[in-house]
Write a structure and sequence with these properties.
The protein is mainly beta. Helices cover about 5% and strands about 35% of the residues. It has four helices and 21 strands. A hairpin with a 5-residue loop joins strand 15 (about 245-250) and strand 16. It starts with a helix and ends in an 18-residue tail after the last strand. The relative contact order is 0.09.
């Protein structure tokens, strides 16, 4: 157990040098050499968290192979301990974007880009703020070069129940919190660049739980483009964590929901497009589902259009459901 002061000091001087990144996973990251010394290989798979380190894992066994920091391999000025676990990638060039945060009396954000073609890193902007907020997610919008409105889609919670609901005793005794899906639009037309920071956003739509859920994902081909469908986990109140998978139509507000048996908790929904398709929802949805009664998990495969089960692969052991994932090609 740590006291309040010990927790505060450990934020600046961690006593445990071990790294256990467990948030997001990326393949073929530019600028990050393998432990073996190769660059840009298909075996280049790294795991990130809201810290400035990358942890390489073996693509076959998932065993950790080693860690590097942003200042070691990307740019020497990226010295801050904090960053976003969620890099954003340009869908056309493959360049990766993120920020590095150095807290202090005057905190410093450094926005940077890792060039896919050269493997080099450019610091695009340095921002000084007196009081740093908690690390936000890293977002990207390629259309802003035309100065059109910025749309922000996010999952929101009206109370802190999502936090208190994850305490162990609460998980065993009562239901979790509900969610909403919100979309806000910030108009930029006709505004001078210096006035943009004061622009007011207005709500475009709001979709209630369980028609919208947590861990939202989309067809990756629609990144930085208008999209219609969002896949996520939702809670109908039958489990203490997630108890269903939902496909939300942002044009109509309609939803298709896959419901497992009581005690079956799905993880993040990963959309995999059918090869050669042109339709946004033509493909499958993959999710790791925990069977709490049997204490085992299975990989669920759903038809993305109908959200009906196509098949499953069962494991003889439980698998964590709160992690992000990705679907990639065969790693050679």
């Amino acid at each position: 157990m740590r006291g309040l002061f010990a927790k505060m000091t450990s934020y600046f001087s961690p006593s445990d040098p071990q790294v256990n990144n467990n948030v997001a996973i990326y393949q073929n990251c530019p600028g990050l050499p393998q432990v073996a010394g190769h660059r840009g290989s298909s075996r280049n798979i790294f795991v990130t968290t809201d810290y400035n380190t990358f942890q390489e894992i073996d693509p076959d066994t998932l065993a950790p192979l080693g860690t590097v920091s942003q200042s070691q391999v990307l740019h020497r000025d990226l010295k801050g301990p904090l960053s976003s676990a969620h890099f954003q990638r340009d869908p056309e060039t493959g360049d990766m974007f993120n920020y590095n945060l150095a807290p202090g009396r005057t905190s410093t954000y450094r926005i940077f880009r890792v060039n896919t073609s050269t493997g080099t890193t450019d610091i695009l902007a340095t921002i000084l703020e007196p009081d740093p907020p908690p690390p936000p997610q890293c977002v990207q919008d390629e259309n802003n070069k035309w100065r059109c409105d910025l749309c922000l889609d996010y999952i929101g919670f009206e109370t802190t129940d999502i936090m208190t609901g994850l305490y162990y005793d609460v998980i065993l005794d009562r239901n979790g919190a509900g969610t909403k899906f919100w979309r806000f639009r910030m108009p930029l037309d006709g505004q001078a660049p210096k006035a943009v920071h004061g622009a007011a956003a207005y709500e475009v739509l709001s979709i209630l739980n369980p028609h919208a859920g947590e861990l939202p994902t989309i067809n990756p081909a629609y990144a930085c483009k208008p999209y219609r469908y969002v896949f996520g986990t939702c809670n109908r109140g039958l489990n203490t964590v997630a108890d269903a998978l939902v496909k939300t139509d942002l044009q109509t507000g309609d939803a298709l929901i896959w419901c497992g048996l009581h005690g079956h908790s799905p993880g993040e929904a990963i959309f995999v497009a059918r090869p050669g398709t042109v339709d946004e929802d033509d493909g499958i949805v993959l999710s790791i589902v925990l069977d709490g009664s049997a204490q085992k998990s299975y990989l669920l495969c759903l038809d993305a259009r109908s959200m009906t089960e196509s098949g499953r692969a069962e494991a003889d052991f439980p698998i964590g459901i709160g992690f992000h994932g990705f679907h990639g090609g065969v790693v050679e």
